[in-house]
Amino acid sequence: MSGSAAQGVSTPAKLSVIPQHVAIIMDGNGRWAQQRGLPRLAGHRAGTENVRRILRACVEYGVKILTLYAFSTENWSRPREEVEGLLALLSQVIDRELDELRRNGVQLRHLGTLEGLPDNLQRRIREAIAATAAGDRIIVNVALNYGGRREIVEAVQRMMKDGLTADQVTEQALASYLYTAGLPDPDLIIRTAGEMRLSNFLIWQAAYAEFYSTPTYWPDFGPEELYQALVAYGQRVRKFGGLPPSGASQSQ
Ligand code: IPE
Ligand code: IPE
Ligand code: MG
Questions:
Q1: Exposed end of the chain (fewer CB within 10 Å): N or C?
Q2: Cα(29)–Cα(40) distance, rounded to whole angstroms?
Q3: pLDDT digits (tens, 9 = 90+) for 33-80
Q4: Contact (Cβ atoms closer than 8 angstroms) between residue 247 and residue 202
Q5: How many A from CA of 27 to the centre of ligand 1?
Q6: Which of 72, 191, 221 has most ligand 2 atoms within 8 Å of its beta carbon, as the pocket-test mutant?
Q7: Is 62 domain-assigned?
Q8: Cα dihedral sign for 25, 43, 226, 232?
Q9: What is the DSSP letter of 83?
Q10: What is the total count of domains within the chain?
Q11: Which residue among 25, 26, 27 has the greatest number of ligand 1 atoms within 8 angstroms of its CB, and so is best to mutate?
Q12: pLDDT by residue (tens digit) across 236-248?
C-alpha cells in the first residue's frame, strides 16, 4: 500500500475535501459476470479482488474509515449455492489478505452478527479482528450478515437488558449500542451498479450522508472512479438542516 500503491491513482492533492468515512454498497457482481457469460460466483470473485484496489486508493487519499457492504441479512434468500460460494470466498479472502492487511496498518472490524455464519468463517473473522486491532492507518468495517433494521433492534434489546430508562434512550445512547459505536457516521455512501436505494445499509448512520451512485458494476469500479466520487463529494454543500455556509451558492 506504500510506493507502488499509488500507481493508477490520480493525485490526491487535487481533492479539496476528503471524506473521513466512506461507505460502499458493492453491487453488480452478478451482472458483471452475466455480461461476460460467466457464473455469478466469478463476479463475486472479481468483486473481492477489487476490494484490494479500492482499499489501497482509500489509504492513498487519506480516507480514515472505509465501510464495505459485503453480505446483507436479506442475501440469505439467494440460492444456497450462491450463498455458500460467496461465504467460502469471503473466508478465503481473509486468509489470503490478513498478513498484508496487518502489515499495512489496516484495522479490520465487523458490522453485523456472526450468528448463522459458518463456524470457520466466524473463527476467521474473530482472528482477523484480533490480529489487526493495532492497525492505525485505516479502519475497514466489513458489513457481513449485516442488516440496518436488525442492528437497531439488537441495540434496543441490549439497552433494555442494560436497564436503561425511557429518559436515557437518547439518539446518542442508541448510537452507542449500534455496531458502529464510537465511529463517526459515513460522510459519503457510494453505490455501484446504478441502484438508488440503501438496501438496509446503515439506515441510522446514513441520516446525513452524501449519496453517490454510479452505473459501473463493482468489479469495474476502480481508483479513478473513486476519485470522481470524491471530487463530487467535494462539490456538495452539506447543510444538516441549517442554511448553507456563507460563500456557498444560495441556490443550493
Ligand atoms: C453484490 O453483487 C454482492 C452481494 C450482494 C453479495 P450482486 O450479487 O448483488 O450483483 P447483481 O446486483 O446481481 O448484479
Ligand atoms: C446490497 O445489494 C447488498 C450488498 C451489496 C452486500 P443487493 O444486491 O442485495 O441489493 P438489492 O437486492 O438490489 O436491493
Ligand atoms: Mg445486487
A1: C
A2: 7
A3: 999 999 999 999 999 999 999 999 999 999 999 999 999 999 999 999
A4: no
A5: 5
A6: 72
A7: yes
A8: negative
A9: H
A10: 1
A11: 27
A12: 999 999 998 886 6
Using the 8-state DSSP alphabet, how is residue 117 labeled?
Answer: S
C-alpha cell at 145: 450478515
Question: Within 6 Å (CB) of ligand 1, which residues are found?
Answer: 26-31, 71, 75, 86, 193
Cα–Cα nearest to 144, from 186, 173, 170, 115: 115
Tell me how far the alpha carbon of residue 221 is from its chain's centroid: 14
Entry pTM: 0.94
Query: What CATH number corresponds to the domain at position 219?
Result: 3.40.1180.10
Q: How does pLDDT run across 110-140, given as a tens digit for each residue? A: 999 999 999 999 999 999 999 999 999 999 9
Residue 93: give the domain boundaries. Answer: 21-147+186-234
Whether 170 is covered by a domain: the verdict is: no
In a domain, 173, yes or no: no
H helix and E strand count, the chain: 7, 6
**Structure-block grid coordinates of residue 10:** 490520480
Residue 16 placed within a domain: no
Strands 138-146 and 106-111: parallel
